[in-house]
Amino acid sequence: MTVDSHIQSHEVENAARRRLTERGVTNRDIAEIVYMMQSPYHQSLTMEECIESVDKVLEKREIQHAILVGVELDVLAEMNMLSEPLQSLIAQDEGLFGVDETIALGAALGYGSIAVTTYGHLDKQKIGIIEKLDTKNGLRCHTFLDDIIGSIAANASSRLAHRERDRQDGMTDRDLDIRDEEDRL
Ligand SMILES: [Ca+2]
Fold first, then answer.
1. Is the pLDDT of residue 185 over 60?
2. Average pLDDT score, the chain
3. What separation in Å is there between the alpha carbon of 145 and the centre of ligand 1?
4. Which of 27, 52, 130, 152 gets the most CB atoms within 10 Å of its CB?
5. pLDDT of 183
6. What is the CA(93)–ligand 1 centre distance, in A?
């Protein structure tokens, strides 16, 4: 195994975004959840802002890595390529198997407590695309993906809530963009 080849950030980002598309999830699907979560608190919120927030969250490495790991395991489980007992645990979405939630929750920690509580809420009240993914049809495995989508939606919700407050506090769009850059790591 070579360890000296440097993996370009944009390759990782593109791969993560492609994975979501391949699994039938669009940014708009995730943004619809964000809208449902944030519109009660944010009267003038638009779908465009929610889509932009999802897009910004997808620039974050920690999220990209969670997508790549989770979707890979879902796909391998669909192809029956994991070793037992992991194959059955993931393919059957065994109730006590919590690594899917651990990875998704870990990816929500970077956006603070609003992200964590929103993730917890979405884990219980499966809505929108999360509900669709959670409905087992016997062919597809979304054991990891449903939680990762919840995490992306939670992060995008938290980001919007914080930006709204910062804007009320008088921060300019330029200041907000700088903060986004700092949040990317
Ligand atoms: Ca799950």
1. no
2. 91
3. 7
4. 152
5. 67
6. 7
Please tell me whether residue 32 adopts helix, strand or coil conformation: helix
Count how many domains the chain has.
Answer: 1
User: From ligand 1's centre to the CA of 150, what distance in Å?
Assistant: 10
Tokens found for residue 27 = 């940014």
Q: Is the pLDDT of residue 117 over 90?
A: yes
CA angle 127, 100, 184 (to 5 degrees): 85
Q: Is 7 part of any domain?
A: no
CATH number for the domain that contains residue 115: 1.10.3760.10
What residues have a C-beta under 5 A from ligand 1, the ion?
100, 143, 146-147
Spacing, Cα 1 to ligand 1 middle (Å): 32
**pLDDT for residue 3:** 64
Report residue 76 as tokens: 């391998």
Distance CA 43, CA 23 (A): 32
In a domain, 68, yes or no: yes
Q: How far is the CA of 131 from the centre of ligand 1 (A)?
A: 11
